[in-house]
Amino acid sequence: MSAPALVNLIEIETAWGHRSFELRRGDLFHLDEPVDMVAVSARSGDLAVLAVDPSRYPEVAHTALGALHAERGVDLARLGTEPSMDLRAALSCWVSERVEGLGRVLCVEDIGVARGVEVTFDNVFAVLALLDAKGIEIRTFALPLLGAGGMGLEPALVMRAVLASCRRHLVRLPHLQRVIFVERDEARAAAFDRALDDALGRERIVLPRGALVDGLRRELVALVAKGSGSVSADGGRVLGELGRVVADVESRSFEIGMVARRTLERVLADLPGKRVGPMYQQIDRLGEAGVADWMRSYMHTLRIFGNEAAHDRDASERRPRALTERDLALCLFCLERVVSFWVDSRRDLSSA
Description:
α6 (155-170) packs across α7, α10 runs parallel beside α13 and α11 (279-285) packs antiparallel against α12 (293-310). This protein folds into two domains: 5-200, Leucine Aminopeptidase, subunit E, domain 1 (3-Layer(aba) Sandwich), CATH 3.40.220; 211-351, Four Helix Bundle (Hemerythrin (Met), subunit A) (Up-down Bundle), CATH 1.20.120. It is elongated. 51% of the residues lie in helices and 15% in strands. With 352 residues, the chain is α/β, with parallel strands linked by helices. The protein has helices at residues 44-52, 64-72, 76-81, 88-91, 117-133, 155-170, 186-200, 211-227, 233-247, 253-270, 279-285, 293-310, 325-351, and strands at 5-14, 17-25, 37-42, 85-87, 93-99, 103-109, 140-143, 178-183. It contains 13 helices and eight strands.
């Protein structure tokens, strides 16, 4: 089974840097990257029965509890009898010891019985704060959209609760860097995607079609193929992601903005000299190394588009309020110029 695909993303600015909130479509237990904690929900009655008779796990095969047992061999009911941290009385949650390949498991019991969905998410983040206070750092946290399955809550309701809770807590937790929400059902994932854009006031923009933009796409894809061998291994991976996003005619503004910023970060890291300070300062200091003003202006444009595409911000008082298709086309042009400069610079260094 393939890893969950990225559907949507926002970044929230905190005192410790930007923190990301990702929505992915697929199986929570098939992430292709390590996480520090995975959350699941379960009914306390099911856990009590399974703790006595594990042979009854097939009866809950349709739940996260059953999937965790079937796909990863994890007996969550047994873990619940000896949790690392038991907060059921106060927060309806408990935390396991580390499980190989999953990190710790946070189990949320009886969602919707006594507490609303927003309170549930607040309780989950409260657990992370307690772990942090005990010196247990959770940097990457993956979980389903609690309440969206068995409770059958409306996607817009769940997403508003999720977003409000993430905004409150990501700015308070010093070590939490990424929260990954995973939805298995394709239709529900699409509904949550729309609900997130609506909650953020985002326009759903893709690159325009036409001879100019299609030509730029082809040039960038060809440049990626030609330049991958000239840059570092990390640079090659970034170029591969850039090629994938640019070639997809359905790629949206946040994907283009993200890949533009990651490409720019890699360009700055690969160019000669030490890079310190905020990105805008790193770009400005390239002038000391002889990088032309116009090339630095392209880099600044990518930096701004990248921030705009991913960050959580209030656009109600701005004019214009949002990026347009033409802005994305300009971003694509700047990408082509900056990647060409990067590849040429690396080749010059190799031949020197």
